[in-house]
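Quick illustration, no need to memorize.
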Amino acid sequence: MIIRMGALALCLIWFVFTIFPLYWTLITSFKPPQAVAGGATYIPWVDFTPTLKAYIETATGVRGNFVQPTLHSALITISATIVSVLFGSMAAYALVRFTFRVRLLSGLVFAVIAIGGFVLLTESFGLSPSAALGAVFLIAVPVSVLLNRLQLPGPVLGNEDVLFWFVSQRMFPPIVAAFALFLFYSELGKEGFKAVDTYFGMVLAYTSFSLPIVIWLMRDFFQSLPLEIEEAAMVDDVPRLRIFFEIVLPMSRAGLIAVSIITAGFVWNEFLFALLLTTSDWQTLPIMLAGQNSVRGDEWWAIAVAAMVALVPMIVLAWLLARLMRSGLVIGGIK
């Protein structure tokens, strides 16, 4: 009994410790400037008189245009989450249900053709980097695929190695990937295809960065599904693609929701990619928030309102998806 009470007390202390910054931000957003400058105040209508002035100024654009960056963040988050979860789930399912054999030598040939061909085309033939990249890709992929079908010497990589390759993409510092994407997008812009500060460019960047985590997590969910249901459908000549969309995905509802929450949270709060890949047309909410202090100084009541604008949508989304997850688990348990 004493141990349980002690554990409960520690949990309550930790809860207060974690919830206090949110509470402080919330009450600060309702404080007038005098209450913020006068020292720490904690209880509305006791220590200070709440006001909606900061919210009104934010809504009317006095504190800057928050509507457009919020819509940008919402649209990019929804699109990148849907694309990442869809294609990541398909890749994860393939890693669970199919056997992959990738010969290391064919991968090395791909690297040699890609790197050597890129240098040759750009330095000797004067092709632009984007054109050279597209040309070597069209050559390296079919050559390496054909070589992989041959009985080449050397190690053969399996499903676990392919999964590790996906996950290893997140081991690099984000600045490396962000800077590489910026250079790539800049080269595309020189060819007439604008990717910097565009909706397409941001969705592509966040999708590529989210896919490894989606594949890793969804693979564990698919491994826990009973194979007998899929085998029964295959006996009835149901196509594999239909099995995936009509049987596997509905049974993985809880996993899809959990992975969607993680992906959406990452994209919504991401700062570095948005800083390098946007300027004004598709500026996202984190960039707007980061600029509040430098533009207007330490107006903490206005900064707190901006923080609440960024927090509330994710809290609501997490609450809704959590309810869907619980209902999916209950339905799955009943079935």
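Strands lie at 102-103, 156-157.
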